[in-house]
Design a protein that fits this description.
- This protein is about 35% helix and about 10% strand.
- The strands form three sheets. A three-stranded antiparallel β-sheet has the order 3-4-7. It has a two-stranded antiparallel ribbon with strand order 1-2.
- It is globular, with a radius of gyration of 20 Å.
């Protein structure tokens, strides 16, 4: 069974990313959201929230933001690894819990009660607020008169956001398959091009295994030409 290697969103160049932000320049909600994703490199689930047992949980509230220390507290919710697979009784292949039939032999799989799944305790993550983003976030909270317990981005549905970003990319003249997770690809690749190590990037993005960073990077030989020319060979 093939291993899932992450989102297939295509990487944007810095010029394309700037064009995408220009498209939503008149919309404070999407300007704030896109810039948040661009400058933090965090998962949309940590910022917006994640579905658990058919309920939306997690997500950032106003009270999670500390402008004095330039930090935001987010929460990562993951299933326990021993509980998120179902074993095929015929071929013993491990399948994702939402599969009705085995991905290898096609055998009907035992029904899994998704409601009974146990989830690991939320893991706290600290997101640093970059200077380029701080004033925009303050303005967004002020304009929308958000209070301490209000979620930052919950006024629109997650399904709508997923469709909107694709439409905005098209309006920006970007002929690529771009998704909300693409902001994470962009951030990590830009950090790699700037010379940051996998360990350094993982501390910022919340990856447990630094080697996972390699899944997200899209560096080409052309990207390193200038750096190679600076090497004292």
């Amino acid at each position: 069974m093939s291993k899932k290697v992450g989102d297939k969103s295509e990487l944007l160049t810095k010029v394309e990313m700037d064009r995408l932000l220009d498209v939503v320049a008149g919309d404070l909600y999407f300007t704030t959201l896109y810039r948040f994703l661009r400058y933090s490199g965090r998962r949309i689930g940590e910022i917006y929230g994640t579905i658990r047992n058919k309920k939306l949980v997690g997500g950032i509230k106003v009270k999670d933001i500390n402008f004095e220390e330039d930090q935001i507290i987010a929460y990562i919710l993951k299933t326990k690894k021993t509980k998120n697979k179902v074993i095929c009784p015929i071929c013993n292949v491990r399948n994702i819990i939402t599969n009705a039939f085995c991905s290898k032999c096609g055998n009907k799989l035992p029904n899994i009660d998704l409601e009974s799944l146990k989830y690991s305790e939320p893991k706290k993550a600290i997101i640093s607020i970059q200077p380029e983003y701080k004033d925009i976030l303050k303005l967004y909270i002020s304009k929308n008169k958000l209070t301490s317990n209000d979620y930052i981005f919950r006024e629109k549905s997650l399904s709508y956001l997923k469709k909107k970003v694709k439409k905005d990319a098209s309006k920006a003249g970007i002929d690529k398959n771009f998704s909300l997770h693409g902001f994470r690809h962009y951030f990590i690749t830009r950090c790699k091009l700037a010379g940051l190590s996998n360990d350094q990037i993982a501390l910022w993005t919340g990856h447990v295994r630094p080697e996972t960073i390699n899944i997200y990077t899209h560096i080409t030989p052309q990207d390193v030409i200038s750096k190679i020319r600076m090497v004292d060979l």
